[in-house]
Write a structure and sequence with these properties.
By secondary structure, this protein is α/β, with parallel strands linked by helices. The protein has eleven helices and eight strands. Helix 1 crosses helix 11 and helix 9 packs across helix 10. One of its GO terms (molecular function) is hydrolase activity.
Length: about 290
């Protein structure tokens, strides 16, 4: 066991780009790393709950073979109103696929932190252990956190509409939340390269016209580049101080909406190669 309870694990989303970081989650599970805090949004939230349920096999399948299911999504699914990714199937009606170990999840002492954004108010809402105790509700929260505006149907909790947590505070990197929770040591699993800078919206007025019913979603979309870039700068600053280890992909091979299993498996293999290369340094950081 590696006791990293003084460390927060921060997991970036990015759709099926997270097939690249899946090997890192699997390694952390198999090496029995115990974190104090695990946070993620969007696809990163899937990794986060798998980390707490200690399910390496589920981590692999969720971003590779499961994406090849006929019901998973695509342009036909989008045209039929189910979304580019069929969130209802992915998160709430899988027909027994990707079984989840809720008992192990609830027994884990780490703090879980998943964020989603209220579409009506723009508020970033955090969901932690006190609410994430029931499998159905966990799936609903992850669905909300993963709901890409316009590309997926809106999801609701207690009648309130929610969208992608990546539009919230931090722009998809929950470093602020981890620091506010009292942590000063961080392992970050990113799905964008080290030199990536999110570009500003070139036509903010058009973004606003896209969301006439939800002006706060438009505002959050426009503000996201500043939030993301600020959070990333903070992570790199912490890295320079020796308080963070950031795993940035060096050979990302897919975009966020890739659904072809062979491409996802190849991306998984690329992430695994980099992870194994960096594991000695990651292990030393966690044990230090």
């Amino acid at each position: 066991m590696i006791d990293a309870r003084d460390t927060a694990l921060i997991i970036e989303g990015g759709g099926t780009r997270n097939s690249y970081t899946a090997p890192a989650i699997m390694k952390l599970i198999n090496e029995d790393v115990q974190f104090g805090w695990v946070g993620g949004v969007s696809a990163g939230a899937i990794h986060a709950v798998n980390m707490l349920s200690r399910d390496a096999e589920r981590t692999h399948e969720a971003f590779t073979s499961f994406m090849g299911h006929p019901k998973i999504g695509g342009l036909r699914s989008l045209a039929m109103g189910r979304g580019l990714l069929n969130a209802e199937f992915m998160f709430q009606d899988r027909g027994g696929l990707l079984p989840f170990d809720i008992e192990t999840f609830n027994a884990n002492e780490a703090t879980i932190h998943v964020e989603a954004v209220r579409a009506d108010t723009g508020e970033t809402v955090a969901f932690n252990n006190d609410r994430l105790t029931d499998e159905d509700f966990i799936n609903l929260v992850i669905r909300c956190s993963s709901t890409m505006p316009m590309l997926m149907p809106m999801a609701y909790i207690d009648g309130a509409p929610y969208v992608d947590g990546a539009l919230g505070d931090g722009g998809g990197l929950v470093i602020d939340a981890a620091e506010k929770a009292g942590y000063s040591k961080f392992l970050v699993l990113a799905t964008k390269s080290r030199d990536y800078v999110r570009e500003q919206a070139s036509r903010p007025a058009m973004v606003r016209r896209m969301f006439p019913k939800y002006p706060e979603v438009a505002r959050r979309t426009i503000e996201r580049p500043d939030e993301y870039n600020r959070s990333k700068d903070r992570i790199i600053e912490l890295e320079k101080e020796g308080r963070a280890y950031a795993f940035f992909p060096e050979n990302m091979m897919v975009e966020s909406t890739e659904l072809k299993v062979p491409k996802l498996e190849a991306n998984f293999a690329a992430g695994e190669e980099q992870l194994e290369r960096e594991w000695p340094a990651i292990k030393a950081f966690l044990e230090g």
